[in-house]
UniProtKB/TrEMBL annotation:
Gene3D superfamilies associated with the record: Leucine-rich Repeat Variant (1.25.10.10)
Domain of life: Eukaryota
Name of the protein in question: ARM repeat superfamily protein
Organism field: Liquidambar formosana (Formosan gum)
Coiled coil spans: none
Database matches in InterPro entries: ARM-like, ARM-type_fold
Length: 407
């Protein structure tokens, strides 16, 4: 009789909970393979041996679980050998216990890997199925989807795994995530979590997934969404993919939209856009920098530096004395202490010295030739003088641009 897909979907969360418990048991067994003298069998061993007892019904029908079934059978044999030596104090028994304990610890690691692979198969299939479901504007269903998206993001953020990558490619998860990201009828929170998952996939293996980002609609969708979260994901993608992504943004005419976020009424969006501008400044080629300057970037940065969230990094010392008096930096001396103070100041004043910080990005970045750097620096200085409301403001910002943003 064929299994009802809806029944499998209902059981999936429970299956995953059980698998997580078994995974933790195998992890515990690696660090403590030998039970205490007054405990014939540890809880971890009991949990895994119960799975071995049920293996005929659970594992034998799935070829992906044959290795796990073999490991559990070997574990049972090792545990039996270990128990037979209990109470014996001969050298042979001692050596047998040591060998069995070492083998159990090593085998537990293999069991943990196989259970993780099992969890991955169940989770990826569950996520793929959830991404294909039509949206019903049901809050509970939305929360379930956000939960599985978050779990997926967490899993791929743990580092590269070839078997996991094969599953992601098999189920075409990138395409499904991009489809959610581009669906304007989908709730924004779900789209944002799909964006987080895409960003995690690029960090997971940039070489495999970068082509899909550059050729697909991901970048346009992130910019169109225009939330602080989507802009932060865009910023992380620029850091990962570098100049090729900035080239794509510039070619698609998206630079003006990014610059416009600096005018947002929401501080979080302005801050995210500032970070994005700095990354484009570092990796952008001449055309991208020209496009930003054409959109009045320097005037906007001067206004932001003038705002209550702005200021000058030269004020770091006064900030430390006035606003954080009595707070220890934690034993960091010299250069490290200065950097710590600067970081604390920027947390409260994210647009402090933003003009100079942008100029520094161009100066030390990867996208420009030396002559282009000099020319853009002169243009920035000219635009600063035009945008400043006083000679004193212009002099301060010009000095920062000329000598760098550090106090």
């Amino acid at each position: 009789m064929e299994e009802d897909p809806s029944s499998k979907e209902d059981n999936n969360p429970q299956i995953l909970k059980v698998l997580e418990v078994l995974k933790q048991a195998s992890h515990d067994l690696q660090t403590n393979p030998s039970p205490h003298s007054d405990q014939p069998t540890s809880p971890a061993i009991k949990a895994l041996l119960e799975l071995e007892t049920e293996s005929d019904a659970i594992l034998s029908t799935d070829p992906n679980l044959s290795t796990l079934s073999l490991h559990l059978s070997n574990l049972k044999s090792l545990v039996e050998t270990l128990q037979k030596t209990r109470g014996h104090h001969s050298l042979r028994s001692f050596l047998t216990r040591r060998a069995s304990t070492h083998s159990i610890s090593r085998l537990a690691g293999s069991i943990e890997s196989e259970i993780q692979a099992w969890i991955d198969r169940e989770s990826i299939e569950n996520l793929s199925r959830a991404l294909q479901e039509p949206f019903t504007n049901n809050k509970n269903e939305d929360e379930k989807l956000i939960k599985v998206l978050t779990q997926f993001e967490t899993r791929v953020s743990q580092g590269f795994n070839r078997d996991l990558q094969d599953l992601i490619l098999k189920w075409k998860l990138f395409t499904s995530l991009e489809s959610i990201l581009c669906n304007e009828k989908c709730p924004r929170r779900i789209r944002e979590h799909a964006a987080f998952a895409v960003g995690a996939l690029i960090r997971f293996n940039k070489d495999v997934f970068v082509g899909q980002v550059l050729m697909g609609r991901t970048i346009q969708a992130l910019i169109t969404m225009g939330s602080a979260s989507s802009i932060r994901v865009l910023c992380s993608l620029i850091k990962s993919i570098k100049s090729p992504l900035v080239d794509e943004i510039e070619c698609n005419g998206e630079i003006p939209k990014i610059i416009s976020f600096l005018d947002s009424e929401e501080p979080e969006i302005r801050i995210a856009a500032m970070d994005c501008v700095l990354e484009i400044g570092y990796f952008g080629r001449k055309e991208a920098i020209e496009a930003m300057l054409k959109e009045g970037l320097i005037k906007k940065l001067v206004e932001l530096q003038r705002s209550e969230l702005g200021g000058d990094l030269i004020d770091v010392g006064r900030f430390e004395e006035g606003e954080t008096r009595g707070v220890s930096v934690g034993g960091v001396a010299g250069e490290g202490k200065r950097e710590c103070r600067e970081r604390r100041f920027l947390e409260c004043h994210p647009f402090a010295s933003c003009v100079a910080r942008f100029a520094v990005q161009l100066e030390v970045g990867e996208g420009l030739r030396q002559r282009e750097r000099r020319d853009f620096k002169q243009e920035i200085l000219a635009r600063v003088r035009e945008a400043s409301v006083s000679d004193a403001e212009a002099a301060t910002i010009v000095a920062e641009v000329l000598w760098g943003s550090s106090p």
